[in-house]
Design a protein that fits this description.
This protein has about 240 residues and is of the alpha/beta class. Helix content is about 40%, strand content about 20%. Helix 6 packs across helix 8.
Length: about 240
Amino acid sequence: MRDKFHLLLVDDDADILALLEDFFRKHGYQVSAVADGAAMFAALELATIDLVMLDVMLPGEDGLSLCRQVRETSTVPVIMLTALDGDTDKIVGLEVGADDYVTKPFVQRELLARVKAVLRRTMEPLRAPTRSECRPMLSFAGWCLDVARRELRSDKSGVLLLSGGEFDLLLAFAEHPQEVLTREKLNQLASGSSRDAYDRTIDVQVSRIRRKLEEDPKNPAVIRTVRNGGYVFTAAVTR
């Protein structure tokens, strides 16, 4: 992993930008700060950005719309910042491909912990593994999950873009095929955290993966729902 990650902060509140910019620089990050979507896309073109922190409430196009556009061409991790504590913003943020969300007002150290967790999940596989750490590519239902490159591809569809959260969840499924996994267990396997039992993160990400993976997402054959149990990955997996 690189010593200094580059964060892009997107918020129209100048005070919050200054606060976060100073905080993350003191913790060893390279930081760029912008106030709107146009500046965000310009920054993404000019530099290698490792993670975007994106406010939902922005002038012009909101953060949800911008996240959706980013996901059309990029797998850069995105953490949404939302001023609303309800589930709606969080669920919609996950639907458009965000990797995590933090509710304002937030504790800076909590945000730092979220940033570290997302970067660890998305960047750790990119370092050169030792011989004992090598994990083979996982093949199932015509798809190949390349752990080192964090890619999902098939001969028919080519490389399929997945957010960091979607990749981690799919990897958790593929490493535990034919096993009923609760939402709590999937959260633990995919993110190393234990969210509230009623958190919708897993359901939303499963829905997104099904739309990309399944021939008929309404009648899924690869990831099936187990009533009152969670989910089961039914495909045979070869390594």
